[in-house]
């Protein structure tokens, strides 16, 4: 099986590619990435015997000619490439539109013209639901409230053409806030940012009053779910990949247990920031084998051991 991973050098991509090259179902993995972050960690530490399975192509989503060329004989496409900058999700709307909306459109057009692609997997975001105190689920009407979320939803609309077409197994996977160690990890993600500050500064900065809740999932669970989706028996549809809903203050309480001398600073404490809870879909948990048997404290304790000092 020949697999293409757009954005394969990113946070989720690095972990997914590692699993794919170890997957006996996979003969070749093509990573298509423009290295815009920039991030070169994907290229470090692969075992020699697995190098023959992986190929890297530096390219842009808006380069339609390059996309059509790279899709030759590809069986499965994972579309992870996106413009993602959490703290500034309402800045630079043009960049979000270009990459997340029109870049996805170009890829879908190319896939539609391909004669080989049999399965298409798109990673979207639970951010498309917007803000809600009532737990969201797959049938909850989207209400994106940032440029980032709006651009991901517009990308979804192009992917839905593949679902409606019925010729290609198509999965639109909305991920919660991803956290956890990876050699390509993002430090703008909320838990990753907190644990970095806690470890090195013993001081965590919180926006708002800390009572806002979000939906989260560990990077290992996301990568495992996507890897298992390669051959999973699921109907083409929209699915949420989430694990737990947490208030920011709950995360801080766990960090305080692990680092007793930790201090907090609240900024704009008078503001009540938006919150979003999302229901865990048992079909996804069971079919993709991603039930979590670890507590948040266990996960964060292990996370802390990954730092050099």
Describe this structure in words.
InterPro entries: Epimerase_deHydtase, NAD(P)-bd_dom_sf. It comes from Chryseosolibacter histidini. The chain has 309 residues and is α/β, with parallel strands linked by helices. The protein folds into 2 domains: 2-178 and 216-241, NAD(P)-binding Rossmann-like Domain (Rossmann fold, 3-Layer(aba) Sandwich); 181-214 and 244-278 and 293-304, UDP-galactose 4-epimerase, domain 1 (Alpha-Beta Complex), CATH 3.90.25. It has helices spanning 11-21, 64-70, 93-113, 147-165, 190-201, 219-228, 248-258, 282-287, 296-304, and strands at residues 2-6, 28-33, 54-58, 76-79, 119-125, 132-136, 169-175, 177-179, 203-207, 213-218, 237-241, 244-247, 263-267, 276-278. The strands form 4 sheets. Strands 3-2-1-4-5-7-11 form a 7-stranded parallel β-sheet, sandwiched between helices. It has a 3-stranded mixed β-sheet with strand order 8-10-12. Helix 1 (11-21) crosses helix 6 (219-228) and helix 3 packs parallel to helix 4 (147-165). The longest helix has 21 residues, at 93-113. It is globular. The N and C termini lie far apart (41 Å).
């Amino acid at each position: 099986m020949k697999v293409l991973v757009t954005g394969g050098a990113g946070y989720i991509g690095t972990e997914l590619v590692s699993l794919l090259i170890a997957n006996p179902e996979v003969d070749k993995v093509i990573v298509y990435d423009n290295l815009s972050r920039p991030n070169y960690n994907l290229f470090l530490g692969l075992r020699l015997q697995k190098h023959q399975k992986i190929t890297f192509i530096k390219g842009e989503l808006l380069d339609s000619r390059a996309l059509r060329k790279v899709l030759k004989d590809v069986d499965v496409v994972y579309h992870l490439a996106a413009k993602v900058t959490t703290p500034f999700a309402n800045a630079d709307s043009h960049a979000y539109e270009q990459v997340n909306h029109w870049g996805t459109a170009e890829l879908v057009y190319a896939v539609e013209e391909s004669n080989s692609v049999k399965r298409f997997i798109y990673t979207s975001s639970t951010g498309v639901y917007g803000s809600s105190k009532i737990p969201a689920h797959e049938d909850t009407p989207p209400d994106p409230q940032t440029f980032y979320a709006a651009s991901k939803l517009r990308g979804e609309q192009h992917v839905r053409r593949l679902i409606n077409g019925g010729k290609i197994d198509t999965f639109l996977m909305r991920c919660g806030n991803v956290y956890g160690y990876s050699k390509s990890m993002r430090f703008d993600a909320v838990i990753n940012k907190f644990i970095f500050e806690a470890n090195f500064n013993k001081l965590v900065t919180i926006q708002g009053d800390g009572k806002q809740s979000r939906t989260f999932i560990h990077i290992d669970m996301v990568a495992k779910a996507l890897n298992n989706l390669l051959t999973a028996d699921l109907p083409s549809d929209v699915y949420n990949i989430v694990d737990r809903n947490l208030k920011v203050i709950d995360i801080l309480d766990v960090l305080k247990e692990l680092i007793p001398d930790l201090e907090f600073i609240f900024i704009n404490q008078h503001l009540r920031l938006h919150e979003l809870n999302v229901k865990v879909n048992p079909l996804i948990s069971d079919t993709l084998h991603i039930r979590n048997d670890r507590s948040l404290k266990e996960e964060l304790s292990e996370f802390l051991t990954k730092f050099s000092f």
